[in-house]
Amino acid sequence: MGPPRERAAGRHLALTPGSGSFQTQYRATVAEVDSWENTWFDVADAALSRSSPEVHGVLFKNLSKVSGSGTVLTVRTFLDRLDALQEEEGEPSREAMALLEKRGLTAKRREEARALLAKVESVELTDDELDTSDQETTKAKREQALDAMWDWFQDWAKTARTVVKNRNYQAMLGLTSPRGGATDKNGDHGAAEDRKEAPSPAAHSPA
Fold first, then answer.
1. Rounded to an integer, what distance in angstroms lies between the CA atom of residue 22 and that of residue 19?
2. How many CB atoms are closer than 10 A to CB 150?
3. Could you read off the pLDDT of 13-67 as tens digits, one per residue?
C-alpha cells in the first residue's frame, strides 16, 4: 500500500470523530429537544408565574432556556421536577399540575420528551460503542473499494500518458511530478525540452 494510494484515499485529510450519519442524527434529535424546551418552558412559565408563584419558583430555580446540546440537561431537570411536583400531596402542587395539564403539558407530552432524551443517549452510545465486528467489516469493504479505485486510476493514468505528451499537463493531471530544467520566457517548465524533442520541419523538407 504505497503513499500515492493513501493520498488517493484521502487519508491525509483530517477526519472528525463521530462524523457521518451518527452526528447528523444526534443534531436532529437535539434540535427536537430544543424545540420541546422552547415551547413548554414558555407555557409553564406563563401559566405558573402569576397563579402559582411558589411552584413556579421551585420548577424554574436556576433553570432557563438554553440552546444546542445543553437542552438535554435542562429538559431532563424540568421533567424530573414536574414528576416530583406530581408526587406531592399539597394543594398548590396539585393545582399547578392541573393547570399545566389544561395548558397542554400533559403526561403524554412529558413522555414524548423522555423518549427524545433516550434517543439522544442511544445515538451517543451507538457512535461511541460500535461493535468491533462491524468496524472490521466496514474497514474490509473500504479497503476493497480502495483497491478497485486504485486499479482504475492506474489504468486511466497509463492511457492518459499516451495521449497527453506535455509534462506540464501531465503534472496538472497528477500523472507525474513537475520537473526541473529549462524554463521558457513564459515560465513553462520543460517547454524548451518539449520543443527540442519535437521534429524540426526542416528535417522533412525536400533536398
1. 7
2. 17
3. 443 444 456 778 888 999 999 999 999 999 999 999 999 999 999 999 999 999 8
- Is there a contact between 164 and 175 (Cβ–Cβ < 8 Å)? yes
pLDDT tens per residue, range 54-87: 999 999 999 999 988 899 999 999 999 999 999 9
Q: Are 149 and 156 in contact (CB under 8 A)?
A: no
CA-nearest of 161, 129, 111 to 18 is 129
* Three-state secondary-structure class, residue 189: strand
- State residue 178 phi and psi, 5-degree precision: -55, 135
CA dist 16 and 19 (Å) reads 6
Which of 11, 1, 67, 6 has its CA nearest to residue 36? 67
Contact 41, 82 (CB under 8 A): no
Measured CA to CA, the distance from residue 53 to residue 47 in angstroms comes to: 10
DSSP structure string for 78-94: HHHHHHHHHH--SHHHH
φ, ψ dihedrals at 19, nearest 5°: -80, 175
Please state, in angstroms and as integers, the Cα–Cα distance from residue 147 to each residue in 99, 142, 144, 153, 198, following that order.
65, 9, 5, 10, 38
- Of 169, 173, 174, 167, the C-alpha closest to 190 is 167
